[in-house]
Write a structure and sequence with these properties.
This protein is α/β, with parallel strands linked by helices. 28% of the residues lie in helices and 30% in strands. The strands form two sheets. The protein has a six-stranded mixed sheet with strand order 6-7-8-3-9-10, with helices on both faces. A four-stranded antiparallel sheet has the order 2-1-4-5. The chain is globular. The C terminus is likely disordered. The structure holds adenosine-5'-diphosphate (ADP) (2 copies). Keywords: ATP-binding, Nucleotide-binding, Transport. GO terms for molecular function: ATP binding; ATP hydrolysis activity. InterPro entries: AAA+_ATPase, ABC_transporter-like_ATP-bd, ABC_Transporter_VariousFunc, P-loop_NTPase. It holds the Pfam family ABC_tran.
Length: 219
């Protein structure tokens, strides 16, 4: 069954549509790459899928549940990596991750494992507001994947990472059995390599929808 089905989905901020007439189906375990320039609606689409924003039209089915009616049934099964990191800035990385672990009933050993794998142990007790953007991004990645969500939503996951850090997090956010991913990118050439399905957005409207192999990145 598809993990995500959108039909003619719209979302406004005030009067203005940030998303309009978006339709796409993503099979379980597949990767959808959403690309387009700044302001195209990529983050808005992720927020709708994460049940943080209600759709203002169309039909949204996520993990078999119809949104917004079944938001609560989806929430714990989604991992969102957003630009604003979704962390408590006065808490440390460890405190943030432990809080999240309790919410999702995840063992604290998982927190330590992730802090180690992302080489955050040395900074694990510092308030996250004192971390560099790159380190903050590593904490945010840990937060997004901590509960091993079957749906992973990644907003420009490599944006603030140096190559070494990118290599550390790659196995954490990569393709995994049964894990469906939606990844945004403002650079189609960078993102499309891992796409099973690609959706191009411009001013909130679909500009291109294609399965891998059909996409001409020069277009
Ligand atoms: P992207 O992630 O592709 O940069 P966004 O989804 O962030 O695009 O934004 C799409 C459009 O919606 C933009 O015009 C943006 O300015 C607008 N927008 C985004 N968030 C809000 C908000 N909270 N209130 C009003 N307008 C918003
Ligand atoms: P992102 O692409 O992750 O949404 P942005 O820098 O576009 O990051 O947005 C940061 C915050 O500002 C978000 O909460 C977004 O909803 C809000 N925002 C973006 N554009 C607008 C806008 N035109 N009016 C009001 N809020 C906006």
């Amino acid at each position: 069954a598809p993990a995500i089905e959108l039909r003619d989905v719209g979302r406004r901020y005030g009067e203005r549509y940030a998303l309009r007439d978006v339709s796409v189906t993503v099979q379980t375990g597949a990767t959808l790459v959403v690309f387009g320039p700044n302001g195209a609606g990529k983050s808005t689409l992720l927020r709708v899928l994460a049940t943080l924003l209600r759709p203002h039209g169309g039909e949204v089915t996520v993990l078999g549940e119809s949104l917004p009616r079944r938001d609560w049934a989806v929430r714990g099964k989604v991992g969102l990596l957003a630009h604003d990191a979704l962390l408590y800035r006065d808490l440390s990385a460890r405190e943030n991750l432990r809080f999240h672990a309790r919410l999702h009933k995840v063992d604290e050993a998982r927190v330590e494992e992730l802090l180690e794998r992302t080489r955050l142990i040395g900074r694990a007790e510092d308030p996250v507001r004192t971390l560099s953007r790159g380190l903050l991004q590593r904490v945010a990645v840990c937060r997004a994947i901590l509960h091993d969500p079957p749906l992973l939503l990644l907003d420009e996951p490599r944006a603030n990472l140096d190559p070494a850090a990118a290599e550390l997090i790659e196995p954490l956010i990569g393709r995994a059995s049964g894990r469906t991913r939606v990844i945004t990118s403002h650079d189609p050439a960078g993102g499309l390599a891992e796409a099973d399905v690609a959706l191009g957005l411009r001013d909130g409207r679909p500009a291109l929808l294609a399965a891998t192999g059909e996409v001409d990145v020069r277009a």
